[in-house]
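Hi, here's the filled form for the chain we discussed.

Project: internal
Contact: R.S.
Residues: 566
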Amino acid sequence: MKKIFILISAALLAAGCTFLDFDETSSLNSRENMYQNYSYIQRMLTNIYGYMPGKDIVAVSDAMRECGCDDAEFGDPSATVQRYGNGNWSALSTVDTQWSLYNAIRSTWEFLESIQTIDISKYRYDVKYSQWLEHLKYYPYEARLLKAYYLFELARRYGDIPVPMKMLSIEEANSIEKTPFNDVIKYIVEECDECAANLPTTYIGMLDDEYGRVTKGFAMAVKAKALLYAASPLHNGAADAAKWQEAAKAALDIIDSGLYRLDPALYQGSADTQDKWFASPEVILAARRSASQSFERYNFPVRFTEGKRTYMSGTYPTQNLVDAFQTAGGYDITLGANGWETADPAFDVSNPYEGRDPRFARSILANGMTFKGSTIETFVGGADYSATRADLGSPTGYYLRKHVQELTSFTPEAEVSCQHSWIVYRYAEALLSYAEAANEYFRDPDRTDGTLHLSAREALNQVRTNAGMPAVTVNGYDAFKAAVQREWRVEFAFEDHRFWDVRRWQIGASTQAQIDGVQILRVGGNYEYSRQMVERRTWADRMNLYPIPQKELFCNTNLNPQNSGW
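And the returned structure, exactly as it came back:
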């Protein structure tokens, strides 16, 4: 059986202290003992993998980060995630702080320092000895790449951050100064380049056929992502074209590598589909979770939970997001004051959830769609409608579809739990990164040169063709930029992109003030649709970056100044 190297689950971190907390009562009572054989060394590296943030979760166990932007609303109005929208977060009352990733970075430096002197030659007569040595030569680069990834997660939240260059003592940790954002990115890129040159493209065919370990492709992906953020308006106020060129080249390196390709079957099918993601030609890295029912308990329409959900929760897509999905013919469609509005002559406005971009039905459950053999009814008085949140219905008129495992069952004595995999990076991201960066660099979607030989339009349309959508034909820099931003939103709906894109593009003031839903009335055999405001939200440009937690400023005054506006 294939062996999954990382299960980013509560079990790993809740099993006790990390392996750095040695138990003096056991044989593992020293730093040296922790590196005495291959198994222990592997466990130390696995511990570093275990810090990888869960892409799907923010602040509380059942709130997706999209609930903190205009793509979704969370069911519980008192949940921590609501602070993003009501403005009640600060350095004293943080949301989604990942400052704890410095524990991961310290663990990484401990590992890198310790592995330099390991000697397992006493096991040289073991039949697996040569394979152990083959794996061990990759371990330092895996650890360094994870460190680079963790630094990126911190930098995109806080901007300027400390970058430890060794395992720090408590005194050193409480006095280290911040490194400017651009220098952080430079360090990440240098680490990724060296790791990419020394990591394999796959571990299949090696000892244990391990999935889930970071590879050459993921090193290239972290580099491309870091450079895209560095080139974006939030961190590129001078609009330096060279930064866009560098970001485009990094994304093109992934495209030209030939290691990956788009997979039209991704996000289609049932529960077993996610088990096959590790073999998908599109997935560069995915994190696998243990089988559970919790995600479905939070996000199924309540009537399918057999009474297992008795409190407000759930991620509910907004009308704001629904309006981003075009018709199947490639025309815009919005729900306005006079109902559905589109220039598509083939579109039937009386059936607004049919004939849409195929990604719509993969991401969102809407009125009239089929789910678990039943028809979803979000019209007023329907089986899935609720006039108030207290009744556990959708506050927006929509339910989440992406990531939800329909095979999950809450039927007594026939319950089914499903495994979930969360994609950290996939090939479509490289294509959209290139489309965005190349358009910004050339200021023309069709221009190329000797280095950037693919046009922005060609890259974007590869993603659309894979999704079953017609090519984008708009001309000019501005129109194409809007098309790229729309594509990011619909292709990566509920994959932890929109929240960050709003910030790196600095578009919060124009997009985050209000979220809307839909009200549907059944009149005879027809439906009438009207746009309904769900919530007014608070936005301030300081929210483009997180505040440094005040407790960290108390511990280390060198982390001052606080991020602007906080």
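Let me know if anything looks off before we file it.
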